[in-house]
Amino acid sequence: MKIQAVLWDKDGTLLDGFADWIRRDRRLVQRLARERSTAPLSTDQLDALDRAALVALGVEEGRVLPHGLLAHGTEEALLLALRGVLSNRVPVEEPPLFLEHARESLRRLLLEEGPVVPHPTPAAGEALVFFSRQRLKQGLATSDSLTHARSEFEALGWEPYFCFWGCGDTAAKPKPDPWTVNEFCRLHGLAPGNVLVIGDAPADMEMARRAGARGFGVLGGVGGRSELAAAERLFSGLDELLGWMRGHLDAMDGAAP
């Protein structure tokens, strides 16, 4: 079936943002702990909290694990994981109230950090322009919140390329559930086989497989070759993918091999 649309993953595929997320989550968990502790926390206590938070989020030696929570978890899932870490050390609210307070703390933290400065992966902008010129619909499938994702794309001038936003706080079911692919298809009159999912994580390829969409993997994010073995094709990065697509887009009319 002819490719009529591209459904992009964000972090690790279009943006190199995991280092920012790790730094931000480390700041957030310490802030949340200080706000709830009945006594000052020592450096050793904060260091232990930091290590526990990274384990809970799926970060090992500064690397985001491909099946870890930070690789595919929604904002709510990440905050609840931090709540679990905090609950062993300081008093915490029940989940609904904790989420409300934690989101406000995160909002304040983001305001303190100032304007969003996203870091595109090599050839990301060029790829968006290429698919736009081919008149393919482009959508986003990310675990990030809609507000934050749009602010990053607005900063880069990318927002007009997208006609669909499947985000962690707007999707009924997160990746790897096929809901986002199916909703993209429903809203834009597509068949799943006409959609190409491009991502860097196993959850992206699993979402594509379960929906009946095509799935191309890109290295350089969280997934390595073994984790992305389910991809129909695997590329070293978007520059290589873009070069291949320029010569093969018209030939992608048949069923996936």
Question: How is this structure best described in words?
Answer:
With 257 residues, this protein is α/β, with parallel strands linked by helices. It has two domains: 5-16 and 119-251, Rossmann fold; 18-113, no CATH class. The protein is 47% helix and 11% strand. The protein has helices at residues 18-36, 43-57, 69-72, 75-87, 95-113, 124-133, 146-156, 179-188, 202-211, 238-248, and strands spanning 5-8, 59-60, 63-64, 137-141, 164-166, 195-199, 214-218, 233-235. A six-stranded parallel sheet has the order 5-4-1-6-7-8, sandwiched between helices. A two-stranded antiparallel ribbon has the order 2-3. β6 (195-199), α9 (202-211) and β7 (214-218) form a beta-alpha-beta unit. The longest helix is centred in the first third of the chain and has 19 residues, at 18-36. The model has no long low-confidence stretch (mean pLDDT 93).
Q: Give the assembly state of these chains.
A: single chain
Binned, the helix content reads 40-55%
CATH H-level superfamily title of the largest domain: HAD superfamily/HAD-like
Mind telling me the CATH class of the largest domain? Alpha Beta
With strands numbered from the N-terminus, the spatial order across the biggest sheet is 5-4-1-6-7-8
Shape: elongated
Task: Note the beta-strand portion.
Answer: 5-15%
Q: What structural class do the secondary elements suggest?
A: alpha/beta
CATH topology of the largest domain: Rossmann fold
Q: Tally of extended strands? A: 8
Which series of helices and strands comes N to C? EHHEEHHHHEHEHEHEEH
Given the structure, what is the number of helices?
10
| Rounded radius of gyration (Å) | 19 Å
Can you tell me the CATH architecture of the largest domain?
A: 3-Layer(aba) Sandwich
The domain count comes to: 2
Largest sheet, described in full?
A: 6 strands, parallel
Instruction: Indicate the mean pLDDT.
Output: 93
Low-confidence stretches: none
Distance between the termini: 12 Å
